[in-house]
Input
Amino acid sequence: MSAWDRARRQARAGRRGRAVIVTVGTLLLLLVPEVSFAGGEAAGTTAAGFLGVGTGAGVLGRGGATLALGGELDVVPWNAAALGWMGETQIAVAHAGLADEVTQEWFAVGGRLGRTSLRWALDGLYQSEGSFEGRDEFNQATGAFDVSSTAFGVHLAHPAGPFLTLGAGGKYVGERLGDVSGSGWTMDAGAQLRVAWFGAGVAVTNVGGGLDYAGTSYDLPTNFGVGAAVEVPLTGLRLALDANFPRAYYRDVRVGAEWRWHDLVALRAGYRKELDAPVELAESGPAFGLGAGLRGLWLDYGYVIPGAGDGQHRLAVSLRPGRLGWITGGGLRVEEMRESFDEPRAGAAPTRD
Output
């Protein structure tokens, strides 16, 4: 590649990165007034409540404390800026069994765009609430109907220096209640700062747009959150603390811890405390999790106890295709080839090309 071609490629990457930065910066500035949300008194007044449940066995095994952590694909739905620290392609799928036989399925894929500094991710969320028997005004059966919800999103992130990443994305949201359906669009944005062993994050999710049912638009469950995290050197221990301010739900504080041993085993625990919720409605409670993996294949399990409700089991599998030489049986390890192209390892600080 000639010096002229290299310069043009770097210029294009720089323009894309600046576009992401300008977009995220604008969104965050516009959203500052939104932190004065209605809160608990407006609980239950928005559509698409499934967007506030959360995904990821690893994240929820820490009680949902994750806004200042990055490097893993399951953090991206919580804070789009976490994508900016990913150094290689990842694929993830997750399953959850929730209350009242509700099930949730999540899929995501993301990574680095070529050799540029721009990161991308696509994800999809499907939640089934089962089948219900309809009744008319005379309490006569009218037949069964299904209730389900879906969301599909695309997120982009870019380093804004050696210590800061910015991210943003858009989502299509749909709900179906028997023969009636609604759909709409919404956005996410976030930023993360990492300096040595300390990290901080800020994120807003499900902001703007709405869910349209037959010409009537309903608000979505917007949430504004801030978080901090500490990685204790030489111990494999990470500690995280988040505070969330939903537009139409109860504020909460989440604390979580994770200990990893040589990237082979992970143990997690966390706690979520809802600050304004009545005792009988609060979903405050502990969470526990564990993970294990080897060279590109990782399995996660999370167990969440939401207040007085039944415990929720969550399972997830993630793959890093660049490390799966042990599956293909190839003699050349992909990790070694990647280093020859000056591409950062997973979890390393982002670099500018």
User: Anything to note?
Assistant: The helical segments are 3-31, 57-61, 325-328, 334-340.
